[in-house]
Amino acid sequence: MYSVWILLMVCAGCDTSENSNIALIPKPTEQIAHQGLFKVDKNTRLVFDETSSSLKSIVQEYLNSITAFELAIDSQAKDNTFCFKVSDMPQNEYRLIVSEKSIELTGGSNQALLNGFQSIRQLLLINDGKTVPAMEVVDSPRFQWRGLLLDCSRHFMEKDFVKRYIDLLALYKMNVLHWHLTEDQGWRIEIDKYPKLTEIGAWRDDGKGGKYGGFYSKDDIREIVEYASNREVTIVPEIELPGHSQAALAAYPQFSCTGGPFEVETDWGVFKEIYCAGNDSTFMFLEDVLEEVIELFPSEYIHIGGDEVPKYRWEHCVKCQRRMQVAGLHDAHELQSYFISRIGDFLASKGKKMIGWDEILEGGLPDGATVQSWRGFEGAKDAVRLGNRAIVSPTSHAYFDYGLNDIDLAKVYGFNPIPEGVSEEERRLIIGGEANMWSERAPQPEIDSKVFPRLIAMSEVLWSGEEKKNFGEFRARLSNHYRMLDKLGVHYGFETVPVQIETNTESGVLEVSLTSYDSSIIIYYFDGVESHVYHESQEIMEPVNWAITFEKESGLFKDTIYQRFEPHLANGLKPNIATKYSANYAAGGIGGITDGLKGSNQFRDGKWQGYWGDDVVATLDLGEIKSVSQLSSGFLQYNNAWIFFPTEVTYEISTDGIKYISLGTILNKDSPRNKEQKTQEYSLTIDEKTEGRFVRIIARNLGVCPDWHDAAGSKAWLFIDEFSVK
Predict the structure, then answer these.
(1) Percent of the chain at pLDDT above 90?
(2) pTM value?
(3) Distance (Å, rounded) from C-alpha 698 to C-alpha 682?
């Protein structure tokens, strides 16, 4: 039984045959290509042993859809056969031998066989649908948890769309669909005991006098769960608690701290209305809900969320304060741990394991809970050091709702779910990773372009060993997969930002360059006067707005990139920043506020530098004493994302960098309650001739979200795009 493995070890690296470029993704553990092809025709027969016979219908379904043949099942192996067999090899491993006469697939389990079959499915789809290159493969996954979170709460997604994504996950050997079913903006799962959850909680005001939403009936869910099970994909439901629960509270306000009334939320963000931790009826309600959820989902895990829970209501709720006193809890974080632990105990009593986002570590991690680490890698490190399991899906690499400015294909491929500094023993508790497709700004028609091709990179990260990774070689294989995705009707997006905008000041003026990772893309820009085909860098002498479009083979893309360029004395200078900006909102790094690129009203456009709870204190050295007539800076406000204009901005100047003179202070006149996403310039025109070598901005952060805010007491963000000197 080990002859194939020995052969692979001897021949690895000796691929000289005509089929050496077999474009399988994820990359197999070992692979050898041979000359020749196995040709599928109407006489090809499928052979299953007794253990693998349950795979008959799904294999036939897939093959018949690809080859257009109705392939029959035979009882024994002959020429022109595709044979499936379960053996005593490791449970997750499969072994594939393709010759001109047959395909032999052996695995340690039906799940392993189906993973091996997906390799054949890929090759048939990539090629003509009727040939498979001759080869030998031995393969098994690196991680047991290889998932995609699909958020169907912010935007409802149709049943067939969810099933389609199960097929796509299976195609790339992903085995978990993390199904986000409840949120502030919509409750999507039918619960018999509480019908208002879908009668009221599944629908929100569409802003046009109507309702927007939807939900899955229990029959829908059973159908989807069975569909996934047949493809060896496990569905893990997420029922959010104690926060992100406003849709449920709109239906049953008695389980809140105030009693309501509430409406299903129409905007995105973090909201203060959460389940009341001091009310026993809240736990009875949640246990009733989870009882019905457990009946629908055979997964050993139930995800309970636990993230982004504002404590304001608990801190001002008599019942919650009494709960803390009786239970001997010191603060609201410990109250959250109490809440999560109580739910965890209930799940354990039903034979289920609990998963929560990394906030469940705060106040004490419940026994046996698995932590999904999203705010970086620290949550995973803390969990495994406590002896708990962890799933790693940080915003830095795994959030596919983020644009390509933040996370492109190369960034995903560079992801390693194993945090630095964990021991060998702790590594075993990292069970895998997950790509997260949150849908705040991505309704169903936009999901494909967000998920693909980045999910393909994630599949290789989670399946293949770290030592196997080579981005250039991966992209070469990926190029063969686009025609497969075309056949499957996947409307994939770009690998990285299609047009990169760069500024340079080496010539003494602001120069703008536009580049693309794809040499076949033609770039156009409209400078407010006329449209141009971009050929070379352009000097920008005055502030200007460009509208940038691009085309490939199919004509102009629908997206237009709008960018304002601002030339000024400080372009290209590296400021001395007294407080550290967030790594997640770096605007390109230390020179991000002097690069001449103004931000839009979207805080994730890559042009904003964000400070969490801190003031912006930045000093520029102009190199020599110069006359200064105007200082200005742009700021962003979007209070649903906890981003506020500065309370005031002070500008200072110095000739020696030691003694500074204040030039003036500008007070914020815009209410922090304004929910509009908007930008504002804080400009100071200096009446008299003023000279100096050093200029400084001090922009005061609001500090914390005000009491009226849904995240009251949490740190506030301050976002700056450019510190302009004229």
Answers:
(1) 89
(2) 0.91
(3) 11
